[in-house]
Write a structure and sequence with these properties.
25% helix, seven-stranded antiparallel β-sheet, alpha+beta, 3 helices, globular
């Protein structure tokens, strides 16, 4: 497997977990990074996942990864910045990290593979891309379910 094939497989891993999350959340691509033999694909959830719904969100992902045969390597149960770290049967590292202000990030790290060029993902983001911005803004898309309980100021979409 080369880096491009590994990146495409990473996209499939991410597509599968996002397909499992119901109701759907809106997301955008984070930066793809490479080193001498590995690739990291990233996605950032732009839907506001309220503190009240965060446990449900993590539960959906945790159950899906376990059902898919992933080995759960670590769970951070911190109330403000929980995370799940797992590994696929073929050695891809997957993680869900809740960062500042509830921003949810997914990463897939490939195992070491044959060096090659890596194209941008062909998976279509479901949130605006915020092209030209230096940083990804905080979550700013409300959802009747996932955003339930989020403060009005946060739901107004201010980054």
């Amino acid at each position: 497997m080369n880096m491009q094939e590994a990146a495409e497989h990473s996209d499939q891993i991410l597509d599968a977990v996002f397909a499992e999350i119901k109701p759907n959340v809106r997301w955008m691509h984070g930066p793809t990074t490479t080193n001498s033999c590995a690739v990291t694909r990233r996605r950032t959830v732009m839907t506001i996942v309220s503190a009240e719904r965060r446990g449900s969100f993590l539960g959906v992902v945790d159950r899906f990864w376990r059902k898919s045969g992933y080995r759960i390597k670590a769970i951070n149960k911190d109330v403000d910045v929980p995370a799940i770290f797992a590994q696929t049967q073929d050695g891809f590292g997957v993680s869900l990290i809740v960062a500042a202000e509830g921003q949810v990030h997914f990463d897939v790290d490939t195992p070491c593979v044959q060096e090659s060029e890596v194209a941008d993902s062909t998976s279509r983001a479901t949130a605006p891309t915020y092209e030209g911005m230096e940083h990804i803004p905080r979550p700013n898309i409300r959802d009747d379910f996932w955003s339930a309980g989020a403060s009005v100021a946060r739901s107004a979409g201010s980054p």
